[in-house]
């Protein structure tokens, strides 16, 4: 009997320690599930915002009159910001403060003038809106003129709730891939100008 009482005395505090360790792990798992769900839902919202914003931008005939290739980029950035915040605030994430700026959105646009140019190299030989060819003042045909096809690259800098957690750099790299989108679209206002042979 004395040995049994001695055994019980030795076990005091073990339950508290086990509960403390277990509840910490349980809360961590719940947080992970919540964060994965939030990222998945935010990615779906981003898909919708990108699709609607690109559709509006490629059909915007007023951008062409600005005579600047950066107008496409700036217009798309603003549309993406407004669309994403509007969709997120109406959905399940409405209770989480979400505010993004144009700096959180990266937009690259490449203009394509012909089927031959598209077939030649779809990854490296586009006329990027930031290169010298596109911005050259002596260019008779700027790269965004007479280009019915455009290649859009858009990505969102998404911040997860606990940015100080371990392996943050790997998580950021993973999120960058999740929120990156690439599209080939027809620039409606230049559709009639599409050439069968390069005219650069």
Protein traits:
200 residues; alpha+beta; four-stranded antiparallel beta sheet; 6 helices; TadE-like_dom; membrane; Tight adherence protein E; transmembrane; transmembrane helix
Quickly give the structural class. alpha+beta
Count of separate structural domains: 1
Strand content: 5-15%
Query: SSE order, as H and E?
Result: HHHEHEHEHE
Largest sheet: 4 strands, antiparallel
Structure, described:
There is one protein chain. The protein has one domain. Helix content is 48%, strand content 12%. It contains six helices and four strands. The protein has helices at 2-10, 14-58, 70-90, 115-120, 132-135, 168-178; strands spanning 105-112, 127-128, 149-156, 180-186. A four-stranded antiparallel sheet has the order 2-1-3-4. Mean pLDDT is 70; it is low at 127-133 and 135-139.
Give a quick rundown of the structure.
Keywords: Membrane, Transmembrane, Transmembrane helix. The protein is α+β, with helices and mostly antiparallel strands and about 200 residues long.
Task: Please specify the SSE layout and strand pairing.
Layout lengths: L1 H9 L3 H45 L11 H21 L14 E8 L2 H6 L6 E2 L3 H4 L13 E8 L11 H11 L1 E7 L14
Antiparallel strand pairs: 1-2, 1-3, 3-4
Helix pairs in contact: 2-3
């Amino acid at each position: 009997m004395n040995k049994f009482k001695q055994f019980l005395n030795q076990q005091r505090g073990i339950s508290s320690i086990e509960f403390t360790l277990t509840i910490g792990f349980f809360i961590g798992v719940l947080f992970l599930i919540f964060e994965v769900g939030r990222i998945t839902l935010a990615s779906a919202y981003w898909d919708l915002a990108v699709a609607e914003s690109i559709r509006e931008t490629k059909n915007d005939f007023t951008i062409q009159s600005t005579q600047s290739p950066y107008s496409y980029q700036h217009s798309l950035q603003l549309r993406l910001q407004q669309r994403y915040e509007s969709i997120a605030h109406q959905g399940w994430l409405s209770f989480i403060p979400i505010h993004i700026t144009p700096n959180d959105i990266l937009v690259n646009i490449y203009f394509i003038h012909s089927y031959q140019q598209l077939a030649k190299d779809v990854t490296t030989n586009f006329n990027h809106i930031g290169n010298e060819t596109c911005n050259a003042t002596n260019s008779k045909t700027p790269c965004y003129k007479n280009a019915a096809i455009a290649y859009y690259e858009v990505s969102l800098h998404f911040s997860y709730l606990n940015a100080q957690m371990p392996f943050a750099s790997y998580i950021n790299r993973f999120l960058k891939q999740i929120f990156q989108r690439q599209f080939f679209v027809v620039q409606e206002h230049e559709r009639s100008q599409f050439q069968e042979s390069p005219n650069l």
